[in-house]
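TL;DR need C-alpha cells for one chain.
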Amino acid sequence: NKDVEEMKVIIIAAGMGSRLNEMTKYLPKPLLEIAGGKTIIEREIDILREVGFEDIVIVRGYQKDKFTIPDIKYYDNDVYTENNILESLFYAEEAMGDGFICTYADSVFSKDIFQRVLDAPYDICIGVEPNWKSRYENRNEHPTDEAELVKIKAGKIVSIAKFCNPEAFDGEFIGVAKFTKKGAEILRRNYHRAIESKSCRFAEGQRFHDAVSIQKAYLTDMFQELIDRGYPIHAVMVNHGWVEIDTQQDYEYAQQLIRDGKI
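>> reply
TL;DR here they are.
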C-alpha cells in the first residue's frame, strides 16, 4: 500500500504522566510494561508495523534517555514542562511532509483502529469513540472533564473541546489522527500563522481555544482552529479497541483487555 509506505507515524511521548505517581517517577509512562514483556509504546510500534508502517518517529521529553527502541528516529522536546501536546508534535515537523498519522504514546490500540484511520479517504481525519460514556462509568479517577469530546454533523467534526457538558457531544477523540500530504500542509500553514499572528509565545493572556496560550495547546485546540477556518475534519468512528492510560485504574484495565484478547 503506497499510502502506508510514504506516510510516517509521529508518536507523541514527551509528557510526564504524573497521575501514575510512583510508577512514572523513574520511567516515562509509555515505557511501563503492559503485556508479554512489552512496554506500552513497544506494543504500539509492533501494531503499527503490522498495519504496514515502517517510518515511525517519537517525540520524547521527560526522561528522554530511557527511550532506546531501535530503528526509530527521535525528536527531543527539552522544554516539555513549559509546553504541551501540540508543540510537542511540531518538534517532528520535518517528518510531516508526505503525510502522517499522529498518536499518543500512552494509549493501547487495536490494529483495526490504525487500519480504519489509514483507510479513511480524507485529508484530515481523527478517530472518535461514540460509546465513550460507558467507559467512564467505572473510571472514577479520570473525570469526564478531561475527555476530549467532539460534536459531529454529517460525518464532520463541528466542535472539539475539553471541560464541557458531555451531554452535548457525540464522542471522544481517541488520540489518533491522520493528515495526508495536503492535510499536513494545511496543518503546518495554520499552526505557523496562529503563532505569528497571535505572537502567542510572548503575549500574556493570549488564549488559543481551550488553552491559556498556543504554547500550552492540545491537538484538540489546533483541530478547532482548523474547523473555525473552514477546513473539514472527518470523524472515523471506532468501537472500543483502545484504552488511554492515565491512572493506575486505566493501566490495570488495559492489561486485562490485552489478557482477554479484546485489544
